[in-house]
Amino acid sequence: LADAGERLARGQLRELRQLVRRLRRERLCTAQTWALLLESGVQRRSGQVVAATRCLMRAQAVAREHGLPQYEHAAGFQLGDRGAALDWARQQGIRAPELLFRTWSP
After folding, report:
1. Radius of gyration of the chain measured on its C-alpha atoms
2. Which of 25, 39, 70, 90 sits 20 to 30 Å CA-CA off 3?
3. How many whole angstroms separate alpha carbon 17 and alpha carbon 35?
4. pLDDT tens digits for 48-97?
5. What are the phi and psi torsion angles at 80 (to 5°)?
6. pLDDT digits over 21-32, tens only?
7. Could you tell me which residues come within 8 angstroms of residue 74 by beta carbon, excluding any fewer than 6 positions away?
8. Cα angle for residues 74, 77, 81 (degrees, 5° grid)
9. Rounded to two decimals, what is the model's pTM?
């Protein structure tokens, strides 16, 4: 059963890496931000904490630069700036911000 779980996890990471590559080919700032957020999750699950943190920091900067506060705060939430992210979410009327941030930045 553990082997099946590992194979599933490896397959999911492979699919996520493919998705990241496809998103990077898009020239939209939203796609670039999503690629960085997803790559961060892949890196973290692969044990690459420093690389994951760099991806989140880049995602946060790209989102801020292009006026995408939801992704900026999702990255900030994952980086530990939960207070600012939760304040922003409350101002937007978001009822389950932790869930939403983890969806945007897995």
Report:
1. 14
2. 39
3. 9
4. 999 999 999 999 999 999 999 999 999 999 999 999 999 999 999 999 99
5. 105, 0
6. 999 999 899 999
7. 37, 85, 100, 101, 104, 105
8. 135
9. 0.84
